[in-house]
Design brief:
Number of helices: 12
Largest sheet: 6 strands, mixed
Radius of gyration: 29 Å
Helix content: 10-25%
Structural class: alpha+beta
Strand order of the largest sheet: 1-4-3-2-5-6
Shape: globular
């Protein structure tokens, strides 16, 4: 007992006297105490009797002069405990990133279930996986759109791990739906069931109501669940979004695992192999679990909008363009909400002819088609930017992985072709665009050129005179890294973008919750606010904190726009706030919003939002227009009166209100 007590006491009893840590660690303070405690420990050893390990040493005397150097063993003990204490503090401060780690992910267990490159080995690999691969525990999933647990007995299960903050999620389900349909698979009736498990990264993604709303926004018609406890995430060994796993019937062993950018390119061949393996097995081909539709309207009054995402302003003609993403259209209104015109969003007769697996409900207004305002089609349009000099509107057609250009004078829509390093690739096809230009989000213009954030690839592209070309971001991987070379910089889910000055851009990076500066003229990329100073590559430094530089904490920021006096506004989406950014001083502070999810007008300090998205500032009217995505409305902040109101739309034709 004496040995153990004396062993633990030295590093815990250093004198502090209420002084800061930087001032209290001084040799003159704790050296005398160390010598006394060491002597006390030796006296305890003598009272308990010698042991085999207590052989006499040169420093085993009871007392020593105070100016004598302490033993190496005692110094080692102090260093070990100090290292353990510092490690504990670091781990506690970064617990958000550690909570997604599991032993199986560290050991790369799921990577062992990636299909082999040799097609002759795939079937044997699948048979081996159905017998010996690790199992995934589905028992703790909380189902959000079914009245009961899905009936998956005797069915092959395709499990999709996704999250709402991943901008590529809509395209993931859309492509998966088409690929499975192309081989004749129907969800629930072909011996195959598709399950969507939402795995949260951010704090605001953990609620059941949040997952319900996110599933409805994607129009999921497969059983959707919340994995807030991370049980499926950890038992499977997953480490990235999206992850698609093909599980064996009943035992739920991981036959194939497809993660990241390869998650969809091999899913058709993998499922065909599994169906061949179980061709002699009596699969359950009865109709799948019945679903109910969650109520998507979280606002307190009807709105013609559904999931508006971004907006922009034509200051010359005093009109606002609204990206009505859920209705697949661009609305043109006056600054007070009076309807002027609509681009796209009209019924598409070809929608029902698309063969799918029934994972998503197909909207009658979605598609990819150029033409006039009545004939053109979009799929989940996001960022928009207006070039008043040339009278053209750039639209990020995120669901089609394309950039569309709208000529306002001729009232026509065209698609910008891609320019990639593989000249043989048919990059204008929808599936091939996924590989090169996956999930673009926002667009801005600088001079005669447009710049686009490509969230799924972690890159920034440029719309030149003839085609889209890559500008910045690593071509092989994504992450968070500054660089003195545009091509070497790394981004993680970049979303909002705007011009900083004549030769620089500001990019909002949602996954790392940071704001980056892209200096196009000098070829440099730096982080303005947010991030982790100790681990610069970390993507878990999020929260809600005002401040300067790396001390700032945001949570899945979405949009950004220029403001007055060389300042900028940021929509801090999951904190339900609008933040003010001063890039020259690297300062970020609150502009409006309480942080409470809701829809409340009034003073800037008491107003509430629900996942605000894109923003635009009208310096003529001194108003800030905000796409309040979760509330399906547009909010207006009067900067002079310090008030927040909700835009009231009028003059909408009955035929276009969806």
């Amino acid at each position: 007992g004496g040995k153990m007590f004396a062993f633990f006491v030295p590093p815990l009893c250093l004198p502090h006297h209420g002084r800061p840590l930087a001032k209290r660690i001084r040799w003159a303070d704790f050296a005398p105490r160390l010598h006394k405690l060491a002597a006390s420990r030796r006296r305890c050893v003598r009272m308990l009797g010698p042991s085999d390990n207590d052989a006499p040493t040169a420093d085993s005397e009871v007392s020593r002069p105070m100016n004598q150097v302490i033993s190496r063993r005692e110094l080692t003990v102090v260093l070990v405990y100090f290292t353990a204490f510092v490690s504990f503090i670091i781990a506690f401060q970064r617990r958000k990133s550690l909570q997604l780690c599991s032993l199986r992910s560290v050991l790369g267990v799921l990577d062992s279930r990636i299909p082999p490159q040799n097609p002759d080995l795939v079937k044997n690999f699948a048979i081996e996986g159905s017998r010996y691969a690790h199992q995934v525990d589905l028992s703790k999933l909380i189902w959000v759109n079914t009245r009961e647990k899905p009936q998956i007995k005797d069915k092959i299960v395709i499990l999709v791990l996704w999250r709402a903050s991943d901008s590529s999620s809509p395209s993931t389900f859309s492509i998966l739906d088409k690929k499975l349909g192309s081989i004749g698979v129907k969800r629930g009736t072909s011996g195959v069931e598709v399950l969507a498990a939402h795995v949260p990264k951010f704090d605001r993604e953990q609620g059941i109501e949040f997952v319900k709303d996110a599933s409805e926004s994607l129009r999921l018609r497969c059983p959707s669940a919340s994995d807030a406890s991370l049980n499926v995430w950890k038992s499977s060994g997953a480490s990235t979004w999206p992850t698609v796993m093909i599980l064996s019937p009943n035992s739920h062993r991981v036959i194939f695992a497809l993660s990241g950018s390869d998650a969809l390119s091999q899913v058709t061949a993998a499922l065909t192999t599994v169906l061949d393996v179980y061709s002699q097995y009596k699969l359950n081909k009865q109709e799948g679990t019945s679903l109910y539709t969650a109520d998507p309207d979280l606002n307190f009054f009807p709105s013609p909008l559904f999931r508006p995402s971004f907006l922009c302003i034509d200051k010359k003609k005093n009109r606002i363009f609204i990206s009505d993403s859920g209705n697949n259209r661009i609305l043109i209104c006056s600054m007070d909400g009076v309807f002027i015109d609509q681009i796209g969003g009209y019924s598409n007769a070809d929608t029902q002819s698309v063969v799918t697996a029934g994972i998503q409900a197909r909207s009658k207004t979605e598609g990819l088609r150029d033409g006039n305002f009545q004939d053109c089609l979009f799929r989940n349009p996001q960022g928009i930017a207006y070039d008043s000099e040339r009278g053209r509107l750039a639209v990020v057609d995120s669901g089609n992985n394309a950039i569309r250009l709208v000529c306002m004078e001729e009232e026509t829509v065209s698609t910008v072709p891609l320019s990639v390093s593989e000249p043989s690739a048919n990059v204008n096809e929808f599936e091939d665009r996924w590989l090169h230009f996956r999930a673009p989000v926002d667009v801005t213009f600088m001079g005669s050129e447009f710049y686009v954030t490509v969230s799924g690839r972690g890159q920034v592209w440029k719309v030149g005179e003839e085609a889209l070309v890559h500008l910045s971001g690593d071509l092989s991987s994504s992450g968070h890294a500054d660089a003195d070379d545009l091509s070497s910089a790394m981004y993680s889910r970049p979303t909002g973008i705007t011009t900083f000055d004549e030769s620089a851009l500001l990019v909002v990076e949602s996954d790392s919750s940071t704001v980056r500066e892209v200096d196009v003229a000098h070829g440099k990329v730096r982080t303005v606010v947010g991030g982790d100073t100790l681990f610069p590559w970390s993507l878990a430094a999020f929260g809600d904190r005002n401040g300067f530089g790396a001390s700032v904490r945001l949570q899945n920021p979405r949009g950004i726009c220029s403001f007055k006096d060389s300042k900028f506004l940021i929509s801090d989406m999951y904190n339900n706030k609008i933040k003010l950014l001063v890039p020259q001083e690297r300062e970020c502070r609150l502009y409006c919003g309480t942080g409470v999810r809701g829809i409340k007008d009034g003073n800037r300090e008491v107003a509430s939002f629900n996942r605000p998205g894109g923003l635009a500032f009208d310096d003529n009217l001194k108003r800030v227009y905000i796409a309040d995505t979760g509330n399906n409305v547009i909010r207006v902040v009067d900067d002079e009166l310090d008030t927040v109101t909700t835009m009231k739309f009028s003059n909408f034709p009955e035929s276009i209100i969806l």
